[in-house]
Write a structure and sequence with these properties.
By secondary structure, this protein is an all-alpha fold. It has one domain: MetI-like (MetI-like fold). The chain has 14 helices and no strands. The protein is globular.
Length: 304
């Protein structure tokens, strides 16, 4: 009886959040799925015509290709660089706290300030072009050239690296130091410690960071939109630009179909990662406990 009461109490605590998700997320998305199979403006059944038109649309092909390229470049760069910095900071005592705070500063800067910074740096008459003129080179309109994509990459990494560092360091602090001590007693070097102890214990943190980095990658659209407008350089024309333009044109049929395609694509990325990182099979858990037990035993013998 007591356990059932606790069970229902938990449901009551979750009910407000679940109600909000149902009303503001699930029901609107169900309506988007319905609209993806109807035409505009008559709302007649269109079957798969909207999806076929979306995949044949050159703007969608360009935006989807740029978005995939952006994710393929940014996510490994952000995750690996933030992990390297976190491992370095975890061994620092004096300047570690100062550097952690410094990396979090970009997150506190408002989007409007970031846009002004972009214009000061990357405008054709901006600071970087001025430096090029000083050395005799022609000024570059960075946001309307092939460099626009890399400006977007830099903005994303600079804006999100501090948050990832905090998450990595939280995972590093949860690893018992006794495991490292036992491994060093066995003669393990720093690379062995990193590959055999640090990385395996950061798998779940890695999953969280990948998901959050994936979600944050869609927020970089704000800066790009405020700087370059609806139609920026082709190299940085992302799916969010396409959605904005279709919404402005009230092309809700194509917009709904494309939204469903993106949602399915993200789900297909997230679910395999969730299964891979949260697959706690009995044999895996037993192996981890056995390894940890051996390390503790060796450390006790050395201390005795």
């Amino acid at each position: 009886m007591k356990s059932s009461r606790v069970h229902y109490t938990g449901i009551l605590f979750l009910l407000p959040s679940l109600t909000g998700v149902l009303i503001f997320v699930l029901l609107p998305f169900a309506d988007v799925i319905r609209r993806s199979f109807t035409g505009m403006p008559d709302h007649q059944w269109a079957g798969l015509d909207n999806y076929i038109n979306v995949f044949r649309n050159e703007a969608f092909q360009l935006a989807a290709g740029n978005t995939l390229r952006f994710l393929a470049v940014c996510m490994p760069l952000l995750i690996l660089s933030s992990l390297a910095i976190s491992v370095y900071l975890s061994g620092q005592t004096r300047i570690g706290q100062f550097l952690k705070n410094a990396y979090l500063v970009p997150m506190a800067i408002p989007v409007a300030s970031v846009v002004i910074l972009w214009k000061v740096l990357f405008h054709k008459q901006g600071l970087l072009s001025g430096l090029l003129s000083m050395v005799g080179l022609a000024p570059v309109d960075w946001m309307n050239s092939k460099y626009a994509f890399w400006v977007l990459v830099f903005s994303y990494v600079w804006k999100n690296i501090g948050y990832n560092i905090v998450l990595w360091m939280a995972g590093l602090s949860s690893i018992p130091t006794s495991i490292y001590e036992a491994a060093r007693v066995d003669g393990a070097g720093e690379w062995k410690l990193f590959t055999r102890i640090t990385l395996p214990n950061l798998f779940k943190v890695f999953y969280t960071i990948v998901i959050l980095s994936l979600l944050n990658s869609f927020k970089v659209f704000r800066e790009a939109y405020l700087v370059a407008g609806n139609y920026p350089d082709q190299s940085m024309y992302l799916v969010q630009h396409l959605f904005q333009n279709w919404y402005r044109e009230l092309s809700l049929d194509k917009l709904s179909a494309a939204a469903v395609v993106i949602a399915v694509g993200i789900t297909m990325l997230v679910l395999p990662m969730q299964k891979a990182f949260y697959d706690e099979r009995p044999e895996r858990m037993a192996k981890r406990k056995k390894t940890a037990g051996k390390s503790q035993t060796k450390l006790k013998k050395v201390r005795i």
